[in-house]
Amino acid sequence: MRKKIVAGNWKMNKNREETTRLISELKTAIQKSDAEVIIAPTFVNLAESLGELKGSFIQVSAQNMHFAESGAYTGEISADMLKSIGVSTVILGHSERRAYFGEDDALLAKKVDAALKAGMRIIFCFGEELDQRKSGDHFKVVESQLKNALFHLKGDAWKNIVLAFEPVWAIGTGETASPEQAQEMHAFIRKTLTEAYDSGIAEGVSILYGGSVKPGNAEEIFSKADVDGGLIGGASLVAADFAAIVAAAG
Ligand code: PEP
């Protein structure tokens, strides 16, 4: 059975003190869940977050990493560094990385390979932009994002991949894909995976929806057959909201 997952992408928010406070609030607000619950604070707060979550079922993810194992890449963080502090999940391909830091499919394929080689699990983000949806190209765009960054992988790598469909027009905009639009795309992703691999892989991979998920819309989105939880931005920064979204996932 596929896992339900709710992951909070904190982006470049919360300093050290604020991180500690939010984690403490989350520990109180989310005592248990059938879903896997993950938070992704900034790099500088990862180690401390892990310490504060010791004994809690809430897990910690990084928001990004470099593809190289080490070397002259000023300002970057490797998979090995993340692993060495106890972080074994990483978000890759977020639309903000693609838009503001020029990350393309070819670069992401290298990051994917590096993360898997280091034994990490990946939450891989992708999704179309508004003009691509308006022109009806969204399926084609999503298919090529998946194909270019992930379809070189062998089948057994997929046990360490979580997909996060995040239509760019719905991220941080307050505009959400309707539950039907999310379901339609998630079903398409599973069909694409079945064609590229097999139905075992397609049915086994968790596909999260991301894009302005809030306490008020989470339950309906998560109720769709092919939606296995969410990647949450803004609402993950407020303990009560994130807790309500986790509760909506079951
Ligand atoms: C995100 O950044 O992954 C995201 C889904 O953001 P938001 O929930 O704020 O739209």
Question: What are the salient characteristics of this protein?
Answer:
alpha/beta; 8-stranded parallel beta sheet; 250 residues; binds phosphoenolpyruvate; 43% helix; 11 helices
Task: Give an overview in words.
With 250 residues, the chain is of the alpha/beta class. Helix content is 43%, strand content 14%. Strands 3-2-1-8-7-6-5-4 form an 8-stranded parallel sheet. β2, α2 and β3 (59-60) form a beta-alpha-beta unit. α1 (16-29) packs across α11 and α5 (105-117) packs across α7 (138-150). The longest helix is centred in the C-terminal third of the chain and has 18 residues, at 179-196. The radius of gyration is 17 Å and the shape is globular. The protein starts with a strand and ends with a helix. The structure holds phosphoenolpyruvate. Phosphoenolpyruvate binds at residues 9, 166, 171-172, 210-213, 231-235.
Q: What's this, in brief?
A:
This protein has eleven helices and eight strands. The chain has helices at 16-29, 46-52, 79-85, 95-100, 105-117, 130-134, 138-150, 179-196, 199-204, 215-222, 239-248; strands at residues 5-9, 36-40, 59-60, 89-92, 121-126, 161-165, 207-210, 229-232.
Sequence of strands across the biggest β-sheet: 3-2-1-8-7-6-5-4
Helical/strand content category = alpha/beta
- Choose one word for the global shape: globular
Number of E-state strands: 8
- SSE order: EHEHEHEHHEHHEHHEHEH
Can you give the helix content as a percent range? 40-55%
Small molecules bound: phosphoenolpyruvate
Instruction: Name the beta content range.
Output: 5-15%
How many helices?
11
Provide the residue-averaged pLDDT.
Answer: 97
Distance between the termini: 14 Å
Radius of gyration: 17 Å
pLDDT below 50 for ≥5 consecutive residues: which ranges?
none
Largest sheet: 8 strands, parallel
